[in-house]
Amino acid sequence: MGFEPTLLARINKPNSAKLEGYRADGGYAAFEKALKDKQPLDVVTQVKDSGLRGRGGAGFPTGLKWTFLPKDHPGPIYLCINADESEPCTYNNRILMEKDPHQVLEGIMLSCYAIKSNRAYFYIRYEYGDAYRTLQAAIDECYAAGLLGKNIFGKGFDLDIFLHRGAGAYICGEETGLIESLEGKRAWPRIKPPFPAIEGAFRKPTIVNNVETMACVTQIMRRGIDWFKSMGVPPDPKNPRDAGSYGPKLYTLAGHVEKPICVEVPMGITCRDLVEKHGGGVWKGRKAKSVNPGGLSMGFLDCNAPLKGEDGKTEYDIPLDFNGPGKVGCLGLGTAAVTVIDDQTSMVDVLHNVCQFFSHESCGQCTPCREGTGWMLKITDRLRRGQGRTEDLDVLVDVADRIGIIPGTTICGLSDGAGWPVKTAIRKFRKEFEDAIRDGSKSKYARPLAMAGAH
Amino acid sequence: MSALSDDIKTRIRAYIPRYPSKQAVTLPALHLVHDEYRTVSNEAIVEIAGLLDLHPSEVHDTMTFYEFFKHDGDKLGKTRLWVCRGLACMLRGAYELQEHCEHKLGVKCGQTTADGKITLEFAECIGACDGAPACLRDDKHEMNVTTEKADSLIAELKR
Q1: ipTM of the assembly?
Q2: Which domains does chain B have, with CATH numbers?
Q3: Closest-CA residue in chain B for A83?
Q4: What DSSP designation does A3 have?
Q5: Which of A98, A275, A330, A406 has its CA 20 to 30 A from that of B118?
Q6: CATH number of the domain at A347-439, please?
Q7: Do A260 and B88 touch (CB under 8 A)?
């Protein structure tokens, strides 16, 4: 049986971003029905019971997050949409915003109705200029059609959606960094608790949700819980804390694949199938050496490392559900952005690139992250210049192990994400790093160290 | 003389009703000023602060955090051309592309050509990985930028 995409069903249609076409395809009927026939709590319950987990990276159950809002709060309550999509190699939100913005907006309307919010701030990274303009045009259409504004469908529900542009800082994708940035301050993440549901934007209860999550809300309200749960991976019965990995998922392919594309498939496809069946395989007829399964922060797979107890399978065969990458030492599914690294690429160069990113994007608030990411960049640069020392690898792992919210030394998870690729790369490709140190071989990209930026 | 035109001031003020605090208009205001004047001068910071009931240091504090806005006499060229150096682009030739652009334009990343036409920058992942190596032309993606494509893009921007 072939799988029919839902979230991406409309993206190749002509004028897919226009209201007229979206309505012709049944758009906004779920919102109208919710407003006319359902109570806000019904929407919360339906989303909660669908098992939808947030698509932004952490995989927190969406409906459950909504229930953390204070009961009977007089308001205002805010919804912030996190469209700061800056995790390297991730672009699924961009496709949704550029090609089917109304599907996202309908999810926002439904979510705001559910959480009793009359205002959504849609925080979009500056680099997505086309998506920004497409969304603004779509929002304008909605106001003109009475889908936004006062007394929508005559049901007494008011809603405004405001786009808010970022200014090129990765940290704004951290939900409290996003809130600080929205408030006009430097995007320094806040100490939690209080979590945003209790005290968020402008010190009011706030929910922060991802763009793809909103598209899923639209489809869950349109197609129902059974449809959503017909796809994906049920919870592990041996793990009472596992919420399962239901629904369709947008995976993005990048790096050394023949076809770097965004595809929609049920959660749980294996990394190998995704690359071979959807990405046209590794480019230039080469083999995959490593894969980054969910954005840089998640770490690396070793495509040649055998999976314990699974005959003939390697880390390349892990399922890309919320639990899969964790079984082979990665941090998690992250943003489901899959980047392939071929067998002719140096992991030293790859790791240097990763460290360069996190060093540049550390916001500078917590010392272990600000300094640690800089040290890791300096060390990987030394490796790249052929001047590595044998103890460098242990120092790298040591630094990576000590920065982050898991060891408890920073306010936000940026540095967990900075550490994980370092740890996994060195643990899994140690011999390659050791060989590079012993040979003193210099990378073709070796340059004098550039000054690291402040964020 | 005022650093900001009446039109820009009106456009900044139009954002105020959107937010429960005036400070939230800081980023929209900085973008408006930066797009128009290609820099945010100290005088502009003082005027933005005046419009938003802030101290100029608060605007300056937020602005400098992002390292996105040109200031202190530095000014953007007519077009800002960013070369992405994220992993997806790096794996498909971003470093070579960046070097090519620097050589072609005779400037390093962060600098502006002498004719004021192009400011070259490096960018961390711009989310255009399906078109790697990619560039950002102001805020629009340019996908699959080969050196040939970069040359024709640069020629177009130089006209």
Answers
A1: 0.97
A2: 6-66 (1.10.10), 79-158 (3.40.30.10)
A3: B127
A4: P
A5: A98
A6: 1.20.1440.230
A7: yes
